[in-house]
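Design a sequence for this backbone.
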């Protein structure tokens, strides 16, 4: 093997390979781009279905699992309801869950999402939909400690088929009527800040 792990062609002279008509187990296989040497590698005969521990080179320390079929993990049958059954922890770096041609579903008796940041640039949750975002629940509570804002470049509607209650220590309504000439109680600045916001 080469002494450096930095994008150099991998070499070795002690590869071990066991195989039959169903698959193989090997240690020391070199990747197709010759940039990584694999440690233990478990593979079907066509190589499409495999499990690889990458030992040296560009992928050193990585684990790869590839399968053309379903990837399933089941656990927790011996645990109690309140215990943690699955733990995925990335000490550094992002976690990406991607369904390139399908849906991502998260289901549980309860679902908790928590963002923990050390300063104002972190601790944020961002939800973005290219078409439609729906929230449907028997009760919906939104509690903003400092500020909240609902904005649309189109039509906004508030509907309550029973009773609608709106409370504020002070309530001010502003329309585009103040765009040319400010009212006696002000409002033009607020109108300019929010006109065309979206």
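Sequence:
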């Amino acid at each position: 093997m080469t002494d450096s792990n930095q994008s150099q062609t991998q070499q070795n002279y002690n590869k071990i390979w066991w195989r039959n008509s169903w698959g193989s187990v090997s240690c020391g296989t070199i990747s197709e781009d010759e940039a990584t040497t694999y440690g233990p590698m478990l593979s079907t005969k066509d190589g499409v279905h495999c499990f690889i521990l990458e030992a040296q080179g560009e992928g050193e320390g990585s684990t790869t699992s590839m399968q053309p079929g379903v990837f399933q993990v089941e656990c927790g049958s011996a645990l109690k309801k309140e215990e943690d059954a699955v733990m995925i922890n990335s000490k550094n770096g992002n976690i990406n869950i991607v369904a390139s041609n399908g849906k991502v579903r998260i289901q549980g008796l309860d679902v908790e999402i928590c963002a923990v940041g050390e300063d104002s640039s972190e601790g944020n949750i961002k939800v973005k939909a290219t078409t439609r975002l729906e929230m449907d629940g028997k009760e919906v509570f939104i509690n903003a400690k400092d500020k909240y804002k609902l904005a649309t470049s189109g039509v906004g509607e508030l509907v309550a088929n029973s009773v609608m209650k709106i409370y504020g220590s002070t309530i001010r309504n502003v329309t585009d009527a103040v765009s040319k000439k400010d009212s006696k109680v002000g409002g033009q600045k607020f109108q300019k800040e929010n006109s065309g916001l979206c």
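Confidence is low (pLDDT under 50) at residues 1-5.
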